[in-house]
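Lab meeting minutes (informal)
Scribe: AK
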Amino acid sequence: MNKLVADGIASVDQGLDTVALDMEKVEIAANNFGASMTGAGDDVTKFDAQVSQTQAFTQRIAQFVGLEGGIEIARSAMRNAISTIKELDKAMTEMAVVTDLNVGDYWD
């Protein structure tokens, strides 16, 4: 009977040792998982920063395109104004040829 009790106690001790080792493995795995999650958090932060930079770049492009469009509209308006002035000057010159007035008289 003593042998049976001793074997039972030894078996329980061995089981407790196994549980203790398994608990250490669980702790190591949990620490590794925590480190992995910290790394994943860093990756998400980096990705968020890249998204912000991409959005800022997109806004700068939109502003440039808008500014470029405004400049082109101003150029076109200036070309039209110069063309209109040339046509007006040509018409005034033709009128001056037919009348006694000169171009300077028309501008006054």
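Next up, CB showed the second protein from the same session:
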Amino acid sequence: MIDIWCSENICPICNSKMIEESSSNVYCKNKCYAIVGTWGAVDIQVFGKNFLFILREFEDELEDERDILESEKISELVQYWKENERYLIKLMEK
């Protein structure tokens, strides 16, 4: 399972150390992955594609299912970029 929350402070795509901008914002130095916390939500970005998670105290049951689907989408996208090191091509484009 991919650690989409970067609990080890390592980018799940390129394995670089995540940079902590603030207590709620961390990003990969290569800009392939970021976690941005805002009031009431967390936005995970994979190469600029956003996935929004509403914090639990503001959620209802349907959003829990949505969070699971979003987590699966993020995991699939991370796997895609890691497969055959596709992320390297993306990084070279910048």
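CB comment: The CA atoms of residues 25 and 36 lie 4 Å apart.
No objections, moving on.
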